[in-house]
Amino acid sequence: MGKHWPPGAPRLPDPGRILESLERGEIGPAEAFARWRGLDRPPAASPSGRQPSAPAASDVLSELDSLIGLAEVKRLVREIRAFALIQARRAREGLAAEATALHMIFRGNPGTGKTIVARLLGKILHGAGVLESGHVVEVERADLVGQYVGHTAQRTREQIRRASGGLLFIDEAYSLARGGDKDFGREAIDTLVKAMEDRKDFIVILAGYRLEMRAFVFANPGLRSRFPLHLDFPDYTGSELLAIADLMLREREYRLDREAHQELARRLEGEWSRAGGPDNAGNARLVRNLIEQAMRRQASRLLAQERIMREDLLTITRADLGGGGGRCGSA
Length: 331
What we know:
Layout: H1 15-23, H2 29-37, H3 57-65, H4 71-92, E1 104-108, H5 114-127, E2 136-139, H6 141-144, H7 151-162, E3 167-170, H8 185-198, E4 203-208, H9 210-218, H10 221-224, E5 229-233, H11 238-251, E6 255-256, H12 258-274, H13 283-303, H14 310-314, E7 315-316
Parallel strand pairs: 1-4, 1-5, 2-3, 3-4, 6-7
Helix pairs in contact: 1-2, 3-5, 7-8, 11-12, 11-13
């Protein structure tokens, strides 16, 4: 029930599973024949006997650590990776290894890092041998729900097929249940649950606002037992938003002068306080909108100058931020 084979353990299919896949239309006759022929062959192994790790685990973990904030999320991701690797080692030593369910729920406001963590998690679980490819298929209600009976199941199965070997990330998942019992969203949920029972080759992440996701899972008991991992993504503090702004500017090869940096810090702290602290602040999307707006204002200011030096192209001034100290606006 939503279980995944321990990473590193041999994954040769048995004849019954091949036949089931053929009957369900998941594979064709040629693929079934190829799999039957492979039953007598031992699984390939690297010279070290270890599962391949690609991309390098250290690179992906460094990318995870480079994210601003999210200390508890990072800890849980590392915990999931460690458990997967140890179960693989136990399997290689001939010890009992847990086939653990890794379906997850991500709860948090927009702009708190849910999508980027999902993408990194796909790479991490691929490197740990849990997922065949680790790619992420990102969908929302419109990608799953059809317009007539049977259409939704077809659309949902197609997205599940695309996610085979990776992660299926469903944003604003609670919207699947907003139309009541007669809504086609219910059909998407039922199709998803059935696939989680029948298939072990993908992981599902349901994502959305904190309160809405809690209500959604509570109202769907069949989902509660299939999603053991819940990760909460807190809103960023004012100082974390400022660190995100500095990072975004460095990536774009811009920088704030001293007055602009002070002004941005003051406005982000004020915006965070006005929002009532965590739960309501605008998060990274607010910062991105503000930075992009400042870049456009800088461009307009520079075109009005007689001479434009390299330093001018790099620098965002207080005037480019709007200067007056009003609320942080979006473009």
